[in-house]
Amino acid sequence: MSHAVLNRVVQDIVLRAATEEDHEALIALEGTAPNAGAELLQARRNFFARTDAYPSSRVLVVEQDGVVVGVECVAMTEVRVAGGHRKTAYSFNTRVLPGLQRRRLGPGMLEAAERWAIDQGASYLTGLIKTSNAPSMKMVTSLGWQTIGRFDYLVLDLARFEPDGTPRAVQFDLYRDPHLMRLRLAAVQSHHFVPVFLERELFSPPPDGAYTGSWTAGERTGTAWLSLWDDRPARGLDPFAFRAVKAFDVMIEGREALDAFTNLAGVLRLHGVRQLLVPLPAESAACAMLRPFAEEIVDLNFVVKCLDDSGPVPPGPLFFDIRH
């Protein structure tokens, strides 16, 4: 979609697609967040630098008198439905300059994200909103969004998962070729996936290129799917601003699954990963298994707006397939 189509003037506000010239202003806007630190800002800088190279995401900015005062990010994903998957857009990282929240910029930003998603052929526009964020929940409800599930956003310190010393067969295969990566993911789309976000140490060297890994421990104890990207714009897209994003799936429940996760944590630590930020359906077995190990838990509503005649999206986790 061209910038001209996205441009929209609301009173003295201009809503348009971001350009490379906006990157520093966007970083300054991110710096107004309560949790903004050097690591988060560097991750945001990497993300904004990457988006220009990929048609599967868009950064929208709100401009007032030539100054960027708001940002809305949207990326293409997929969601599981009966009979397959549907193209789905995911709205995230909405931010407005402090003092302008009462200008009701949010509806216009979501409308622009909607138009872009429809142009990409998406059936749904989705998002995660804190259950405590009553103003945002009221806004999206008034715009026709529905709440169809609740997620617990778990912050897991991998150092807390220590193996008990029992020998186990561990296999971890890394694929550098992006075509192999896509084929590998296509082969497992029938499984029940949940998104996982992997945050690396700020000064850890990035992996050399794009990887996808499958990992198993013991017999049928668990399987994980992992992608790591470096910081170069031509190599990958991380729509959630952290260094690595892909899916994690515990295939069975119980003690064996927890043992499998512990071994997985050890493998990830070897690759410089120190935290997993995992949004899981609140009532899922995986959430119950990992909740006691969480340093922090944030309650989120999973909200969805249907953009065509596909009907309501079934409740449950998303399968994120970020297209390069």
The rough form would be described as globular
The fraction of residues assigned to DSSP E strands is 35-45%
Mean of pLDDT = 64
Order of helices and strands: HEEHHEEEHEHEEHEEEEHEHE
Main sheet record: 14 strands, mixed
How much helix, percentage-wise, in residues? 10-25%
Task: Walk me through the topology.
Layout: H1 3-6, E1 8-10, E2 13-17, H2 23-30, H3 38-51, E3 57-64, E4 67-81, E5 84-96, H4 106-119, E6 124-130, H5 134-142, E7 146-157, E8 170-175, H6 178-186, E9 194-200, E10 211-217, E11 223-228, E12 244-249, H7 255-270, E13 273-281, H8 285-290, E14 294-306
Parallel strand pairs: 5-6
Antiparallel strand pairs: 1-2, 2-3, 3-4, 4-5, 6-14, 7-13, 7-14, 8-10, 9-12, 9-13, 10-11, 11-12
How would you summarize this macromolecular structure in one to three sentences?
By secondary structure, this protein is of the alpha+beta class.
What does this structure look like?
The protein is α+β, with helices and mostly antiparallel strands and 324 residues long. It has a domain at 154-306. 25% of the residues lie in helices and 36% in strands. It has helices spanning 3-6, 23-30, 38-51, 106-119, 134-142, 178-186, 255-270, 285-290; strands at 8-10, 13-17, 57-64, 67-81, 84-96, 124-130, 146-157, 170-175, 194-200, 211-217, 223-228, 244-249, 273-281, 294-306. A 14-stranded mixed sheet has the order 1-2-3-4-5-6-14-7-13-9-12-11-10-8, with helices on both faces. A hairpin with a 2-residue loop joins strand 1 and strand 2. Helix 2 packs antiparallel against helix 3 (38-51). Residues 1-6, 166-253 and 316-324 have low confidence and may be disordered.
